[in-house]
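Task 17 of the worksheet. Students: predict the tertiary structure of the chain below and write it out as structure tokens. Keep your answer in the requested format; marks are given for formatting as well as content.
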Amino acid sequence: MSTTIKKEIYPVTEMSCASCALQVEQHLQKQPGIVRASVQYASQEAQIEFDPTIIQPEAIQSTVQSIGYNLILPSTTEIPTIEDPFKRSYRTTKQNLIGASILTLPIFFLGMFFMHHPYSMMLQLVFSTPVIFYYGRRFFEHAEKQLLSGYSSMDTLIALSTGTAYVYSSILTIRYILIPHSSHTVPSVYFESAAVVITFVLLGKWLEARAKTQTGAALRALIGLQPDTAYLWSENEVSQPIPIASIQSGNLLLIKPGSYLPVDGKVISGTSYVNESSITGEPLPVLKSSGDTVYAGTLNQEGSMCIRAEQVGSTTLLSQIIQRVKEAQSSKAPIEKKVNILSSYFVPVILFISLITLLGWGLVGGEDGWSKGFYFMITVLVVACPCALGLATPTALMVGIGKGARQGILIKDAESLERAHALNILVVDKTGTLTEGKPHVVDSWFTGNEELYTSILYGIEEQSTHPLAQAVVQFATLKNSTPLRPDTIETIPGKGIQAYYQQDTFSLGSSVFLKNTSLSSDLVDLLKTWNEKGYTIVVLVEHNICVAALAISDTLKPHAPIVVKQLEQEGIEVHMLTGDSRSSAQSIADLVGIKNVWAEQLPGDKEDYIKRLQAQGKVVGMVGDGINDSQALAQADVSIAMGEGSDLAIDVAQMTLLPADLKKLPKAVLLSKQTIQIVYQNLFWAFLYNIIAIPIAAGWLYPWTGWQLNPMIAGGAMALSSISVILNSLRLNYKKLN
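Model answer:
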């Protein structure tokens, strides 16, 4: 892919159903310079990858407008909030609903109680005209543009049904006025049906918009954590307010009690408890003091702190989470793509059914067959609801992704949320995943003068950033040792370090330094025990005599055994893949209860292992935190990164656990199962509604029962079917993840 390719998310307004989103998507993908487009009806957003050297955002906007919709470009003068692009559309819908309702009430009253009064038709014509062509003009405008572009949508159904009813009734009314009849031959008109349908659809759109705002509540909550201003702290300890957009990396900021942190940074002075639930999902506050890392969007609860800004603006962890959630909610899962394709055929099929209904009743319905056919045709056009089908999957996925974000489970795309429920095998890395990833000394041995040799170990290792060296430094620090720094240091590849103290030479490193040394029997036994336990051994040798030995091990995460058991209870096999030694890997596997262990694996070996499992038909997940896990993460069906791992692993993974909390693994799987369950429920009710409603609307029951579905009731049922799908999706927020 060209380095010039940009990926942007733009709000799209005026879409009324899933087929609208599919039309916009297909139309965009035909344009030169657009690499990929994904349009989401539920979130009303388009995720577009394009080459700015070929097509500009303004041209993309014009393309969308040409088929009856609108794409909102970001304002250059102000920072938009998540609701800004939709406020105008929402307000217009509300105004149209109020106006249409005021005029529809007298139409309904006249149509119900004075249907055969000569002046009733004229008044209904007068009142219904603005309802149809002013308050309901959006349906006709969209239908016209879509027709000219070769598309159809729910707007087509609404425009055809209400427009046909209005035109037919208008012709009868004008003819009655121009050619007077007796009072007994006042024709039946359908002004009230057309007006009520427009009003009901507008009501449905308004209620739908209100319900949709709740599906994005998690994202708006995250955006609301960003304060508008911060307090710049000067050297003379004076604070002054500063817009958050003006903060630069390196600035010192005063964080007052009860305020949200504006940036990521390090605590310079002060101590306070910080609520990090917005990032980690954990409700208990964390004590922060000098040197600790703090994150934007977390809440400072008690004391004041001075922090140094490190990550600002779009580079903060909170900003990245917001962007990931937006991208995930704009992405499409495989099941949604299939439903959208089905929805694209829905409108043409309904148009065909309505035509067959008209012709069928007209030809075999007797003397008033054409009148019945016309009535049933309008009802079919009104009752059919592609919206419910289109909303069934994306609304559930949006709520699920938002819920995950609140729980510290950051989901990059909808596909991973769908696939996670079907996992057969979960492959986990050891270091940093099952273990803390922070080695420390668990046992030690000294031949004598422990204080001196600890100081020598401290002096040699304090200059290294290697994790094992840091473990030795921590060990010496806990013993209140003072570093004894060597005169010179020489690195010996594959072995360790050689240090010189005046006349003395010390070798520090792996047990290969013991090759030509004589060892006491107790040290031999101890080294054997350490090896069996999988500990990493560091020895200090002076003049071919081992004077100290340290056993270093990574700490097992306390919840690892419980998590493995929970996953296996869900029917998911847990395998361990690690680059560590077999003894070290097996010792950890025994502690957590993992039976399938593969040690000493290179990055390519991990990828090949996952490929072999996939070739057996398994759905494989991979959990890792290091650069060496990136190939395997990319290959897995569902990839999960630990939040404190490498940037590459987090970038490749489809899910990230914040922080590196293993307890969230079963929660992520359960969230996927709950979400997919809601998706299937939504699809079931959407299909059932249409399967039952359309035949009834076509008059199938009329020959036997004499009952026919009123178009006004059909309009209300159509609106309620969409709203019920959204409300069912919102139930996800109340399901527990334990």
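Marker's comment: Residues 664-697 form the longest helix (34 residues). The chain has six domains: 6-62, 81-215, 227-316, 332-408+670-738, 412-434+558-660, 440-553.
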